[in-house]
Amino acid sequence: MRLADSPLARKLGAYVALSEAELEALNGLHRRRRRFEAGRDLVLQGQSHQSAYILAEGWVASYKLLPDGARQIVDFQIPGDFLGLRSILFHASDHNVEPVTRIEASEVLASDLLDAFQLAPKLAAAVLWAVSRDEAMVVEHLVSLGRRSAEERMAHFLLEMDARLQLVGLADRTGYDCPLSQYLLADALGLSAVHVNRVLRHLREQGLVTFQKGRVCFDDFDGLVALAGFDATYLDQERPLLR
pTM of the predicted model, to two decimals? Predict the structure, then answer.
C-alpha cells in the first residue's frame, strides 16, 4: 500500500495536505505493527503506563465498565483511528479497548508522537483535528442517548459510521460491511438487544435501510437522513485543506 493510501493518511489528509516527508514521518508510527484477536482487551481501564495504538485493519470498541458489571460502549473505532490515545497522556486509562474483530494495529508511545511532530509539525495539527473530531462525535452520541428516539438513534449511528468509513475508503452511499452484533449495538445505543432487533426490522420495513449478514445497505439514503435529522457538519469532513 502506498503511504498516502493508508487509512490514517487518508483520514488526516482530509484536514491537511501531507507532503512526502510528512507521510514518511506518519509511516514511522507503524513500525511496531501487531495482530490482536477479537475479545482480548488492548487497553484496560484503570491501568497505567499503557501504549496507544493506530488501527490499520478491523473494528474495535471503546467502553466503560460500571461497578455492577454493566457496560457502556462509548464508540467504535475503524481503520485510521487512534486507540487509547489518552492512555499515554493520562496517569491511568479511563476506558477499555476491545477488538470486535481480529485486528492489526501499531503500538505508539508518547515519544513516537513527539518525534513525529518534531519531524513534521503539521502532523500535530492534523492529530489535534482528529482528536477534536472524536470529541465532537461523543457530544453527538450524548444527544442521541438523551434526546433521540430509538429509531432516530439507530439511523444517526448508521449514517455516522457510513461517513467515517467513506473517509478511509471503506463505504459509499450504498452501504458498508459492518461486523457489529445486535448486542454490541445495544451497549452503544442504550437499548436492549431485543429493542435493537425491533428497530432494525422497522427501518427495513419502512424501506430505509437493511442490516443483515454483516452488511448495511441503504435502501433510501435520503429518507434515512431525514428520519435521523443527520447533519454531517460536526464530522468536519467537507472543508478546505490546511496547506
Answer: 0.93
